[in-house]
Amino acid sequence: MNSLADAAGTWPFSGIRFLMFRDMQKGGEMKRVLLTLVFFGLATMTAVPVMAADQGHGAAVAAKTARAADAAPDQAKADKTAAAGQAPATDQAPAARQKTADKATAAGKAAANGQAGRDETAAAAVKPAAGTAATPARAAEELKPVPLTNSDCVKCHFDIAKDLDAHGGAHLEVNCTGCHQEHPPSGTNAIPSCSECHDPGENKHFATKGCTSCHNPHHPLEINFTTVAATKPACLTCHPDKGKEMAAHPSAHAEQDCNSCHNQHGLGPGQYQTCLDCHEGHTPDMTIKDCLKCHKPHSPTDITYGDDIPVAFCAACHDDIAATLAKSGTKHSEMRCVECHDGRHGKITPCVDCHDQPHDPYIHKKFPECLTCHRDPHNLAR
């Protein structure tokens, strides 16, 4: 009884089955109810997904239970017949028990077959249909990345897009995918070579190495030289005239790299150093415009000027001559330096250009050099 109750406890609704089993022992008339209970338990098990092995075990337990149930009423009937003096009618009991066991076994097989059928149905659900097998080639085709568009780029690189829109120059016409043809991790050609568009054979500047040292591709004409060690070789490919000028007029400026004066490309405010950033002015109120009236940045010692240069600018370097001229009291002291030294620094205008030959021709013939007598034009002898 205990083993049967334990077996009944392994099925769904175990408590109900156990109570019904207990009642069945009270009379052989409950045999039919027990068989119904066995079939009900097997039917319930088919609705609960269990392993086929467990269902086979359940069928075996059911058969054992049926045989035990058959034996109990037969034994009780035999005892009753013996007591009444009659022969026990046990010749039909083995056939009945065998029939019950056969029914239980058949029910177990049916349950196992039902589970197998459900397994096959589930396998068929995940198995690809005939003619649609996922071959490696088709899988690769399905995983092929979708090409990016310019609108996709802006979603992650909005600041760069704004920069390009404001300062891109000709690069703005190329757009994102015109340069960036691939994007990691699906491709490695994310940063193209500048030479793909800028042919080194067309311009010496395009043959220069390290383009991005000066040029940011998203604002190519806003060039910052402060982080570049040497810029002169690259600069002279576009500005060869400046190189020739410095070579013709050697100076301390010609020995400097271009970025010593040029912080950025261009001549806007803040893009270059002014003369007064390195040099002291000739006068306290001198401006950069005043400097450039005489000095050119790439040939500062080749001094040329117009006729509007005040004496004070010259006197800053020639203070002794200016003092002598001021003390002389002659008409020369009332003149500006550029009236005699016109156009270029160091030029001396001949006296006859202003005075012609004021003396007797004999004297001019005997003394052709005016300074033989007048000594110093800044301090004329009377």
Write the SSE topology:
Elements lengths: L1 H8 L4 H11 L6 H17 L4 H32 L9 H34 L9 H7 L7 H7 L1 H10 L8 H4 L52 H7 L1 H9 L26 H4 L9 H5 L18 H5 L3 H10 L8 H4 L11 H4 L5 H6 L4 H4 E2 L2 E2 L2
Antiparallel strand pairs: 1-2
Helix pairs in contact: 2-3, 3-4, 3-5, 4-5, 7-8, 10-11
List keywords for this structure.
two-stranded antiparallel ribbon, 382 residues
**Element order: H for helix, E for strand:** HHHHHHHHHHHHHHHHHHHEE
Number of helices: 19
Please report the total strand number as a whole number.
Answer: 2
CA distance, first residue to last residue: 158 Å
Q: What's the arrangement of strands in the largest beta sheet?
A: 1-2
Q: What profile does the largest beta sheet have? A: 2 strands, antiparallel
Judged by helices, strands and strand pairing, the structural class is mainly alpha
Strand content: under 5%
Q: Judging from the principal axes of the Cα atoms, what is the shape?
A: rod-shaped
Helix content: 40-55%
Could you tell me the radius of gyration in angstroms? 58 Å
Weakly predicted, low-confidence segments: 1-21, 23-27, 46-56, 81-93, 122-126
Mean pLDDT level: 76
Would you give an account of this structure?
The chain contains 19 helices and two strands. It has 382 residues and is an all-alpha fold. Among the domains are: 117 residues, no CATH class; 77 residues, no CATH class; 70 residues, no CATH class. The longest helix has 34 residues. The N terminus is likely disordered.
